[in-house]
Write a structure and sequence with these properties.
By secondary structure, the chain is α/β, with parallel strands linked by helices. The protein is built from seven helices and ten strands. The strands form two sheets. The chain has a six-stranded mixed β-sheet with strand order 6-7-8-3-9-10, sandwiched between helices. The two termini are 18 Å apart.
C-alpha cells in the first residue's frame, strides 16, 4: 500500500466579482502505508472538500498530493471513493452494480464475475447478488457501494461520511465491518466523519480541522490495538480530549509539521 502525502493543500472559491474565499489553508499531512486516518471538524469546515480534492473531483488552488511518491492529479484507478449515498444504479442488480467499474475498464465477463463475487462476499452480501437496490436496506446498499469500490482494488480509499444516513445500530455494525475489511485488506484509508466516537473507534489517528478556512489544529493518536471495545477507557479519554479541543475553537493555532 502506498504512502499518501498532502503538501500545503489550499482551496479558494471565487465569486462572479472575482473575490476569493479561502476554504482550506495550507494542509500538510502524511498518511502512512496501510494507515486508517479519520478527519473531523465542524460543519462546513472543508472536510469533504479535502476528500474531493484527493479524489481528483475538485481542483486545488495550491499544493500537491503524492501517492507513493508520485504526484496525484485528476482521478486515478489507484484511488477509490465511497460517498454518503451509495449511488447505486436502480436498474442494475447488486452484482451488475459492483461490476460496473470493471465493465468500463474492459475487463472480461468471467473476470468481472469472479472479482464481483469476491467483493460481494467480503462485505457480507453473499446471497443478495441478484437483488436490486430498492430491495435492500440502507445499510446493505452502503455495503454494496463499498463492494463496488473494493472490486477495483484501489490502494487508497476515501470515505465521505458513508454511514451518516443509516440508523445508529446499523452504523455500529458497519463500523465493525469496515474495520474487519481494513484488517483483512490493509488498504490506506482516509475517512471523513462528524462523529467523534466513530472517528476514535475506527482510526489509527484522528485529524481535527479548524473552522473555515481550515487548517490542521491537532492530530490525536489512538493507542489501542484492534479489536477494540467501545467502552475502553483509553478510547473514551481520546474522545474527551477531542471534545475539549472542539469546545475551545479559538485556542492558539498549532504550527506542528504533520508531514513527518
Amino acid at each position: 500500500m502506498p504512502e499518501v502525502v498532502f503538501r500545503n493543500i489550499t482551496k479558494n472559491y471565487s465569486n462572479p466579482e472575482g473575490d476569493e474565499t479561502p476554504a482550506i489553508r495550507d494542509v500538510t499531512l502524511t498518511i502512512q502505508n496501510g494507515e486508517f486516518v479519520c478527519v473531523l471538524g465542524p460543519s462546513g469546515c472543508g472536510k469533504s472538500t479535502l476528500l474531493e480534492i484527493a479524489a481528483g473531483l475538485l481542483p486545488r488552488s495550491g499544493g500537491e498530493i503524492l501517492l507513493d511518491g508520485k504526484p496525484l492529479s485528476g482521478t486515478s484507478r489507484d484511488v477509490g471513493v465511497v460517498f454518503q449515498d451509495s449511488s447505486l444504479f436502480p436498474w442494475r442488480s447488486i452484482r451488475k452494480n459492483v461490476e460496473f467499474g470493471l465493465e468500463l475498464a474492459g475487463v472480461s465477463r468471467e473476470e468481472r464475475e469472479q472479482k464481483a463475487e469476491k467483493a460481494i462476499e467480503m462485505v457480507g452480501l453473499k446471497g443478495f447478488e441478484n437483488k436490486y437496490p430498492h430491495q435492500l436496506s440502507g445499510g446493505m446498499r452502503q455495503r454494496a457501494g463499498l463492494a463496488r469500490t473494493l472490486v477495483n482494488d484501489p490502494s487508497f480509499i476515501l470515505m465521505d461520511e458513508p454511514f451518516s444516513a443509516v440508523d445508529h445500530l446499523t452504523r455500529l455494525t458497519l463500523q465493525d465491518e469496515i474495520v474487519r475489511i481494513w484488517m483483512q485488506e490493509k488498504k490506506t484509508i482516509l475517512f471523513i466523519t462528524h462523529d467523534v466516537a466513530e472517528a476514535v473507534y475506527l482510526a489509527d489517528r484522528v485529524v481535527l480541522l479548524s473552522p473555515r478556512p481550515s487548517y490542521i489544529r491537532h492530530i490525536f493518536d489512538v493507542p489501542v490495538k484492534r479489536p477494540r471495545d467501545r467502552s475502553d477507557p483509553r478510547l473514551l479519554d481520546v474522545v474527551q480530549r477531542i471534545y475539549i479541543k472542539l469546545n475551545n475553537p479559538r485556542d492558539e493555532e498549532e504550527t506542528v509539521d504533520y508531514s513527518i
